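Changelog-adjacent note: as of this version, every example in the card shows the full chain rather than a window. The one below runs 478 residues end to end.
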Amino acid sequence: MNRVRIVAGAQLRLFVRSRLAVVALLLLAMLSGIAAITGAAQAGRMAADRATAQQAANSEFANQPDRHPHRMVHYGTYALRPLGPLAAFDPGVDAFAGSLIYLEGHRQNATTLGAARESSGLIRFGQLTPAFVLRVLVPLLLVFVGFAMIVGERQTGLITLQSAQGLRMGELIAGKALALAAVAGIAALPALAALGWAAAQAPAEAGVALVMAVAALLWLGLWVLGITLVSARARSAQSALLALVLAWAVLVVLVPRAAAGVAALAHPLPSKAETDLIIHAELRQLGDSHNPADPHFAAFKAALLKRHGVDRVEDLPFNYRGALSAEGERLTSTLFARHAAEAAGVQMQQHGLLAALGLASPAIGFAQASMAGAGTDLASHLVFLDAAEAHRYRLIQSLNGLQTYAVRAADDAARSRDPIAERQSRVSARFWAKQKPFAHRGPGPEARAAAMLPGLAVMLIWAAVLGWLLARAGRAQP
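Full-length structure tokens:
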């Protein structure tokens, strides 16, 4: 162990004397620091803006004047996806999935305000965030710093001299890997500090933040093992550099993009236009509540009359128009929920296939673990969509209930031609304030930490394979 420390210390001194390594490390530290600061500032600003906008939407709905309940059904409100404190580390799918939904009756709208749609196309090359720096830039730095640390000494004959003095190949490899791991740790400090700062803002997030830090260090550890292995096995420094740069390009850039394309082809998701056309056709088949001869609503009317022992809707003990609106909302919401579940199922199939293809690149596992921990992954977005739809349905049916039981049927029928009936069909504004506003917290820290396990498992598999290959290389002759 003493020899390992001696080798590591010697290699660190070589790194320090290397202007390329020092300059690259300083530049990366500055870039990572900028990413951490700007990411935290942007995420904090966005979280505050969303919270303010949500409060404003809730307040605007609650402070509406006396209105007919069905007008409030069409007036609607908004639901915004809140940002957790760890989203500053990895914004995940938030830039593309959108964060705002308009909630109204008879419709299930899509999310809007995705940063990728509101910004230039440059955002698709990757946002400058701590997670991006760790996933993409730090491995490339490690490649240029460590590609020649073993093969370079072999070419100069230094390894043969060290072997003659009793240094074993395994000790040499362990010392070199330890030195490169120290460089990786220094390079990761700004990003990990940003993660720690985000966790400090919300102590309840400390546990999942620690798991995210472990995932980041494990990801960089894979590159330490891989670079050391290639440097130990390569025949020349040039071939080691070429192999490692190619590995970075394939594992970090090519495979994740190709895997996403394969997942999309294997489980195609219909476009919004196609889905809207299908839903529109199915809505026509459900029935028309405005058509007295429609089979479904005629049967609904007959069942209500029979249940209450009357012959006319005017004799029902409630406003039939409100009950009709509630039944129509129930039917359309069932249809919306089915299509939303089908779309979510396809997306989760894509996600599952992408996770399986992650065995071909640990970058996929690290990205999925990072997003899951930050609460910015696909699963968290789908939870938000479900919560928004559940709130929409409860709100609309509550308003339909007001029309059913708080508006007289005679006034409701005459309000379009009688100003007095129109005024009497309005419901007091105090009822809007009683409606529960939209509030969403998202998956808790424990659930997010559990969602990180598949990505961590992929990286652990890679670590086991690389560790085994490196151990074999350590038993070889210098």
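Structural remarks: The longest strand covers residues 77-80.
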